[in-house]
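Reading a protein record of the kind used here takes only a little practice. To see the layout at work, look at the sequence and tokens printed below.
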Amino acid sequence: MQKPDVKGFFLCIFWQMFLYAVWSVPAWILLILHFAVGVPIVWFWVALGAWLIVLLLRTLLIIWTRYCVRHRTPVPGNKNPYSQKLRDPYAALRERQGDQGNEPFSIEPNN
């Protein structure tokens, strides 16, 4: 089992904080309104928390998609003998010569 990549998680969070800093503007406006007009400070923390939760969910989505790409389910083999198009046409000849596929292919007459 792989260790979780904590450094990558925090790097992704900080990168998204940098990219989406504009989304935190409502929280900073509410902080200014708290000091200027007297709006409760709770609204600033709610807006800032909502911004951080959105960033956290986006980061977890990125990590989940990266995990899904890394751990793919293997494709089952084709069981239908009539639809096998990628068959080796020289398989019978190799079996007759005793070649297991380790050497380059060569046709030699059997005497």
Notes: Residues 95 and 101 are 9 Å apart (CA to CA).
